[in-house]
Amino acid sequence: MIVRFNNAMFKKDMKNIIDYSVGFLNGIQGGKKAFLGVLGMKTVELMKEYIDSNARVNPEMLHHVYEWNRTGSPDSRLYDIDYVSSNLGLSFKSTFKQSTSIKNGSRVPFYDKAKIMEKGIPVTIVPKKAQALSFEINGEQIFTKQPVNVSDPGGQEVRGGFEKVFDSFFTRYFTQAFLRTSGIAQYLKNPVAYKKNMSAGKKSGKIKGYQTGYRWIANAGVGR
Fold this sequence. Notes:
Layout: H1 7-57, H2 59-62, E1 79-86, E2 89-96, H3 113-119, E3 123-125, E4 133-137, E5 140-144, E6 148-150, H4 161-181, H5 184-189, H6 192-196, H7 198-204, H8 206-218
Antiparallel strand pairs: 1-2, 3-6, 4-5
Helix pairs in contact: 1-4, 1-7, 1-8
């Protein structure tokens, strides 16, 4: 019995397999930006829905980040959320918008309403054109010519409310529910594309590996 072993072909196959593997890893790195872009947009969308939902359940804590009497309404948000993708991953940042609605009893919008109430920044109210201030406390109409100091606009329940919900999205909902139910976590644990394209990679080497890795990571986004 004679066994013939083609050493040259074996070396070629092994080299192509190694090149395919390297190309696969490079492709993942190349497609990472596309994946993070899709993940970032979907995450921002879900975050806003999550905050709106919490606001409708607990308006006392989050009414300040919406126009007056519109708590939890998507078209009345006084906040915005943006993301930045980099080699380190995704980062998210929130900003507050100016209110344009006027509360009952007032004549002008509350300047920096969301920011001031969220941070508990003290404000001083003084009459501009009128000779006295007029406001209501416990159903009683009050008039005064003196400046009115408000040490904690919105109160203790409002202060830091937006930040708490923002943080809870990532510490609870995002890691415990979204990544799991969306299928992303399981998808990233099991790179089946690598194995499925091994035969082609043994022939084509690094080019096939890069294409496979890029497509695999790019398709890991929500809605693939």
